[in-house]
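Can you give me the bound-state structure? Components:
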Amino acid sequence: MADIYSNADALSRQEQKRDSLYQNRVKVYPKKVQGTFRRLKWIVLTVLLAIYYIAPWLRWDRGPGAPDQAFLIDMPARRAYFLWIEIWPQEVYYLTGLLLLGAVGLFFVTSLFGRVWCGYSCPQTVWTDLFMWVERLIEGDRNQRMRLDKGPRTWSKTSKKFAKHGIWIVIAALTGGAWIMYFNDAPTVLVNLLTGQASVKVYGFFALFTATTYLLAGWAREQVCVYMCPWPRFQAAMFDEDTMVVTYEGWRGEPRGKHKKGEPWEGRGHCVDCKQCVAACPTGIDIRDGVQLECIGCALCIDACNDIMAKLDLPKGLISYDTERNVANRAKGAPLRYHLIRPRTIVYSALLVAVAAFMAWSLATRAQVDVNVLHDRNPLFVTLADGSIRNGYTIKILNMTRDEKVYKLGFDGLGYAEMTVVGQEDSASQDIARLTARSDSVATYRVFVVVPADLVQGQVQDFSFVLTELETGETVRHETVFRGP
Amino acid sequence: MPTKIEKDAVSGQDTTGHEWDGIKELNNPLPKWWLYVLWATVIWAFAYYFWSSPIPGVEGFQEPARERLAGEMEAARAEQSVFLEKIAAAQLQEIRDDPDLLNFAIAGGGSAFADNCAPCHGQGGAGGPGFPTLADDAWIWGGTLEDIHQTVLHGIRSDDPDTRLSEMVPFGDGLLDHAQVSDVAEYVLSLSGEATDRQAVERGKALFEENCVACHADGGVGDASLGAPALNDAVWLYGGTKTDIESQTWDPKHGVMPAWVDRLDGTTIKMLTVYVHTLGGGQ
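Here's the bound-state model for the whole set.
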C-alpha cells in the first residue's frame, strides 16, 4: 500500500479553519446501464424478491390444530416452522448455526469474487435498485433527473415526485406486510390488516418496516453502505491477491485523455475519460481510483465501459473482474494465473461443509422427546410416620411430536421402593405408572418414591427413572438421586 | 489542540492533527444527516422523559407504572377467572380428581403457600422444630381435604371463634415427678421401638394408661379429633429424643396456627388445601 503520509504538508492555521466538520450529501444520479452484469443483477433481484414475497404464502399441512404455513415463526406459541422442521425455544442454537453458515458462506464467496454480496444480493442493494428503477421510470434517466431536480417547481415536477414517492410507499408497504407475514398466518393477517382488526403490535411493526424500507431504499441508499454498514469496512480483509474484484486495468487505460475519431491509439491509454463508469455507479465513485470502501462491486461500471469500448472498436475489459496478481501479469505480458482453489478458499469451504453437515446431522438425529427429572429441593426428603423415607420428583416430558404419547414410568437401581404419581394414586401396579404427554406440549408429573427405613443406603443413592414409550418400545433413562437422613 | 494538520495525498483529506504512537487519522467530515439524527434523538429523549411521568407527583402522559401493574394484574386474574370460577364452585374432592383443575390448584396453591405459609412451615412444607411438616403423612388434626381446609380456615389456638384448640397437660406442674416423666418417656419411645430400658418401659406403661390414654388413645395412636398427636410414629413435632419427649411432657409447648378465613379469599384457601393435600401425605 502506498505510504499515504509521504506527501503530507502541514497546513497553516488559517487553512485549518476552513474545513467544516460536517458536509452536505452529494446526491448520486446513477445512469441506466445495459450489459451482462446488469442482466445478472436483474435476475438475482427477481429471484430473491420472489422468494421474499411468495414464501409466507406457501402452505404445509401439519395436521389439525397446527399452523399450515410453510415458513412461520410463531412468537406467542414459542415455535418456529420451516417446512417439515419444527423448532422449540431450547433449540434456538440452530439459528446460531444458520448465522454461522451465513457468515462463513459470506467469507468464502467474498474471498473468491469480492463484494458480490454487496453488489448483487444485499437487501439494501436489491431494494435500492428496485426504487431507482421506479425513479428512472417516472423521472427519466440521469440527465433528465438532474435537470428536473435543478429546475423550478412545476406541476409536472410535483406530480412526478408524488407518483414516485407513492409507488415507493406501496412497495415499502408490501415489503413491511410480507415481513410480518413471516410471524403471523399470511391470509389471516392480510385480512386483519385491511379490515382494521389487526392488533396494535401488528400495525406497529407493519408501519415500522414500511417506514424503514421507504427511508433506507428511497432516501438513504448509498449512505447505508458508506456510513452505516460494518461489512464494507472489513470485507477488505477477505481479499487477497487472487480475489476477482471489479478492477480498472490501469496499465491499459493510462495515460487517459479525450480521443477524437481517427486519432491513433499509440502512446496513450484506452481510457477516453468519458466518465461513464462514474455516471453508472450507484455510490457515485470513480473505480479508476482503485478498490475502495464505497465500491459495492455491482459491476455496472464494467457494463458501461464495455459499451463505450464497443463503440470505439476496442476490446472489452478495460474494467473487469480481475485479480491483483493478474493485473500485474497482464501489465508485464506474463501468463495469467488463477488460484481460485487456494488455502484460504479451501479452509472457508471446508468450514462451510463441516458446519452444514453438523447442523444437518444434528437436525436429523435430534430427539423428538425429552425428559427432565427435577429432584425436590425443599424438602430434600420426608420422614413418614412409619419411619420410611420419601423423595419427591417433578418429571417433565417434552413431547415435540405431533402425536400424543403414553409412557410407562419405572425405576431402576434402587432395590425395593414404592413409587406413586400424584393424580394416579389409585393405579394398580406398584412401581409402574402411565404418563400421558399430549402432542406438541410439556407434561408435568409429580412422583414420590418411598424407601423403607432400614433399606435406605446412606445420604445419597444414585438410581434412574426409565420411561418406555408404549407404542414403539423406545426407552429414555434419566439418572437422579435418592436422598436420606 | 491539534498540533499538526496534514493533507493526505490519496484522499485529499486533512488529518486530525494528532498522532498516537505514529498513528494518524483522517478527519473525514460527517454527513449532516448524521448530525440531524443526533439532535433528533436528544429532542426525543427530552420528550420521552416528560411523557413517561417519572417525576413523583408530576403527572406525565403515560400511565404510571403502578397503575399499569394493577391493570396487568387485573387482566391476569381475568384470564385465570375461568379456572378460579370453577374452583370456587367445585368441591375439594372434585378439584382433586380433575387433572386440569388439580394442576391449576397446585400452581396457585403453591404460590400462595410460598407467600403465606412457607415462613413457618418451610418451603414445600418441610417443617421444622415446632412447625409441623406438611409433606409427611402424620397429621395432628387429620389429613383429609376437609380437615386441612378447616385447619387453614380457622387455625389452631388462633383468635378465630371457630378455631381448634388442644392442650397438652403440663405434667411438671405437680402431677408427675421427674422419675415418672422419665419412665413415661421411655414407654413412649418403646411405642416406636426406640426404648432401651425395659423396666422403665413397664413402669411407664402403667403411668401412660392412667394419664395419657384419655387423649393419646391406646398404644399412643393419637386422636385427630382432639388434636392429640400419634406417639407411636417416627414423626416428632418437638423432637424425638428422650430429653425432647420429657421436656414436652413436663412443660409442653403449644404452637399457634393463624386463621386465614379473613386474610385470604375462599378460592385461594381451597387451592392451598389441595396443594397441601398433594404434598404427599394427604389422606
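A couple of observations. Residues 161 and 282 of chain B are 26 Å apart (CA to CA). The interface with chain A takes residues 2, 4-11, 14-15, 17, 24, 27, 29-35, 99, 102-103, 106, 122-127, 133, 135-138, 192, 230, 233-235, 278, 280-281 of chain B (CB under 8 Å).
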